[in-house]
Amino acid sequence: MSEVTIFHNPDCGTSRNTLALIRHAGIEPQVIEYLKTPPSKAQLRQLLAEMKMPVRQLLREKGTRYGALGLADPKWSDEQLLDFIQQHPILMNRPVVRTALGVKLCRPSEAVLELLPVGKLEPFRKEDGEMVVDDGVRRA
Q1: Which of 12, 19, 22, 116 is catalytic?
Q2: What per-residue confidence (pLDDT) applies to 2?
Q3: What pLDDT, in 10s, does the model give residues 35-76?
Q4: What domains appear along the chain, each with residue ranges and CATH number?
Q5: DSSP of 34-96
Q6: Residue 96 backbone zone (phi > 0: left; psi -120 to 50: alpha; other: beta)
Q7: Coil, strand, or helix at residue 16?
Q8: Spatial distance between the Cα atoms of 62 and 60, rounded to a whole number of angstroms
Q9: Is 100 left (phi over 0), alpha (psi -120 to 50) or beta?
Q10: pTM for this one?
């Protein structure tokens, strides 16, 4: 298994910037285009457990069928929400990155820095021109 894995959507600017930051660190991650290869329910449960995140926090509303499916309704159980993500992978917020230092939903993209198993990086320019300056702080 690769040391770094990203659940990636190439159509998402945040996801592209996160992937570019990982590569800027000299790491070639395992890239899982989750719209083409969605994680299983078991994988989703594992990711959520590692992030200590409830299922609802992983749901993406913008640009999805979230509203049409009525997913804001508290009647849906976690298992049902996982079923919805399986049926409509676009409902999974992205990018999710796993490294030896942990798992995180990396929004904004520079959130990935704390997970990278490398020293402080040189400044990085995002697609929109914004500069990212790494403070060198990593998870222990």
Answers
A1: 12
A2: 54
A3: 999 999 999 999 999 999 999 999 999 999 999 999 999 999
A4: 1-34+94-140 (3.40.30.10), 44-92 (no CATH)
A5: TTTSPPPHHHHHHHHHHHT--HHHHB--TTSSTTTTTTTSTTS-HHHHHHHHHH-GGGB-S-E
A6: beta
A7: helix
A8: 6
A9: alpha
A10: 0.94
Task: Output the six-digit token pair for 130.
Answer: 């914004």
Least Cα distance to 6 among 27, 23, 30, 26 occurs for 30
Q: Is 20 helix (H, G, I), strand (E, B) or coil?
A: helix
To the query of whether residue 12 is one of the catalytic residues in this protein, the response is yes
Which tokens is 17 given? Answer: 């910037």
Q: Are 34 and 8 in contact (CB under 8 A)?
A: yes
Residue 101: is it exposed, middle or buried by C-beta count within 10 angstroms (0-12/13-18/19+)?
A: middle
